[in-house]
Amino acid sequence: MNKERIIGILNEAIEREIGAIFQYMGQHYRFPKDKHPIIREIMERIAVQEMKHAEKFSKRVIELGGRESTNTGKVIWAEDFVRMLEADVAVEDEAIEMYQRHIKICEEEGDEKTKALYEEILKDEIEHKKIFNLLKGVLEVEGK
Ligand SMILES: [Fe+2]
Ligand SMILES: [Fe+2]
Q: Which domain holds residue 70?
């Protein structure tokens, strides 16, 4: 197993997670308490889940003898609530595509442990994408 290669992909994933944390946390406190209390709450909960993902990936980097990245991946800012949710779907799409690609690399390297971690986290990202699409639909019906 090429440990450096695995550490490299894990750090790419960590940066994706850190970007998602800032994006969702920033949206959490932008959604007004009076008008969108449920979306506000959901954004915070998903941001915390992304933090747990970053933590799990980071622990694996340490286990492999590497150093975890603390760089922030891309954050997409949008003023409009519907656009915010579109940006969130785009982030989840990027994570899904990235983690599927990383799973293949884990297979090539024979790293079952890291592969299992990616598979577990990938399920959450697929769920997040569904939630964001659903919320976007709610906002569109409500007229924002
Ligand atoms: Fe995540
Ligand atoms: Fe996610």
A: 3-142
Which ligand lies nearest to the CA atom of residue 15 in the structure? Answer: 1
Q: Does 135 score more than 70 pLDDT?
A: yes
Strand, coil or helix: 90: helix
- The domain that holds 69 is classified in CATH as 1.20.1260.10
* 93 Cα–ligand 2 center, Å: 9
Residue 76 CA to ligand 2 centre (angstroms):
14
Cα 2 to ligand 1 centre (Å): 24
Distances (CA, A) of 82 to 15, 17, 51, 106, 142: 25, 22, 24, 36, 11
Q: Is the pTM of this model over 0.85?
A: yes
Report the domain count for the chain. 1
From the CA of 131, how far away is ligand 1's center (Å)?
Answer: 13
